[in-house]
């Protein structure tokens, strides 16, 4: 019961987590990889994949609205299968994406800082959030929402870049589109961690506002992913294939930086928050799956953190290995798991709901029959 | 029985976090800003297989007296050179605030971008760092202190940052330098600086440009540089002089922009210049608006033609016509000699304010 309450979040927090989950790692190295593979078609690849993700997020919300995946009224063995699949997928994703985050911190924010220290700090914080549950992660996201909003507004107001349309042309769809979509599947399909939270209406907000917030969230997601990809292409063109950290490089070109030097603190800060929340969500999914088998102990969450730490520091250790892992066959496993588990969970939930409805209808019919006979 | 509570859980968490942070601060190799040499501008030259890198730094003594100092080091590896420079200056070199990078024509044409890649791909320099080349060696341009008391390298960076939208020189950031390098033709254009002396006065002349494709290059005259800016830059500042009979007139540029389009099956690149101009104080007698437009149009035409012809002769696709062919699905860019087969059709549209 306590666990159920720990993972129950408000709809607004859910939208924020969904936004962060979809955006956080699509604005770092992915734009560079996409430009390298599909050139000017990168925007279309990003748009196509994001559209699929947003649609899938609606399915995830459909489940979360009822209950968290492990609290659904479905057979226990099926929950076990879901838990194993999500644990594996989240482990792969947290290792790959965590490496990207650690690489950014150790190379761009600092110089020559060992991966082991950065990973320890990052995973340490994320394990704490993961153990505390969805409610704490949701609340954290809500608290830092203003930092994200400020960074976005700051960037919008002071953005200074020439839009060179020639970098986007010719407008065509070739086989590169499919190649890029296939090659970088690991960066897409980031929604299973949200299956472990359930949503409820906030007492402070009217129900009618929700539709408006959903529209805002979808627009913000598209602007921050497809919009950034578009701007990245406008600014760097084909040379984007050698430009890492897209969000940092794009945001560093603001009007203020031309006058007094680089002012990228708002963007860096907002991304760091998104990185921590995203990795926390992945570790949270892992911890919830592990707790399904080993019980609700803090040690289980800690063990998940240790596994991710070891995988990042000793298994990967540099961005090139992380890229190789992300583009290996494991990408199919992670991507299919994200989709299949979500769809299977939704179908199982609907079947269970239909059964319940049928039973309750029969029960009502029987009761009415008895009452009629008595009368 | 309730267990005695030795320490509050909240304070325990704070204690653990503090311990981690303090430990990390000792493990971190970051040096404070006081232990770093902030580079204001740098130069890059190459002789044979050896690079020469120069840095300009500002030293301030206790009496607030400012002095611009330059250090130079040579080697076959840029990283090693910076280590050497750190040793010479006595503290770690920090390049993130460098405003200008002066590159020799030798590096632009005979280095296969190896050294430049170090600065860009390695994200060593800020994206806004200005790249220029020089008539003299980069060392000669970087080191002197100008008559206004400012180090020439630093002054160059400051001037170029304020030149955006000017008629003439197009400031080139390292980010744009690489963007252009990745276009078909690999052409880059950058300001060509010259250190001049007039008696006791030392100053920088920044009126010409240099165009290079990585193997060969050509200097554009002041007029050709103006033509380049009319085609490739959004201009919002400057004046265009013209001759009418025996008197000289001048118009101010309010705004001007060029656009090149190529049909799918055509070998004519259609360049359209849209300029909004305003009469200057220098207006010759007996001239009306139409005549003024005609003479200014001719002048603009001549600037652009000079730029295009100079580059075409040197085999340089300065207007990125190959890239535009690709963008408009014209197959001509596949021909190695596409530049010779394409004609430039210039259409100048002037609007007087």
In a nutshell, what does this entry contain?
The complex is a heterodimer of chains A (375) and B (353). Chain A is mainly alpha-helical. Chain A has helices at residues 2-6, 11-23, 30-38, 42-64, 76-109, 115-132, 134-158, 175-183, 209-236, 246-251, 255-260, 265-294, 298-316, 319-326, 330-374, and strands at 8-10, 198-200.
Task: Describe this entry's structure for a reader.
The complex is a heterodimer of chains A (about 375) and B (about 350). With about 375 residues, chain A is an all-alpha fold. Chain A has 15 helices and two strands. Chain A has a two-stranded parallel ribbon. In chain A, α2 (about 10-25) crosses α7 and α4 packs parallel to α15. The two termini of chain A are about 45 Å apart. With about 350 residues, chain B is α/β, with parallel strands linked by helices. Chain B has helices spanning about 10-25, 80-90, 105-110, 115-120, 140, 150-160, 175-180, 220-230, 290-315, 320-325, 340; strands spanning about 35-45, 50-60, 65-75, 90-95, 100-105, 130-135, 190-200, 200-210, 215-220, 240-245, 245-260, 270-280, 345-350. In chain B, a hairpin with a 2-residue loop joins β1 (about 35-45) and β2 (about 50-60). In chain B, α8 (about 220-230) crosses α9 (about 290-315). The mean pLDDT of chain B is about 85. At the A-B interface, α6 of A face α1, α7 and α10 of B.
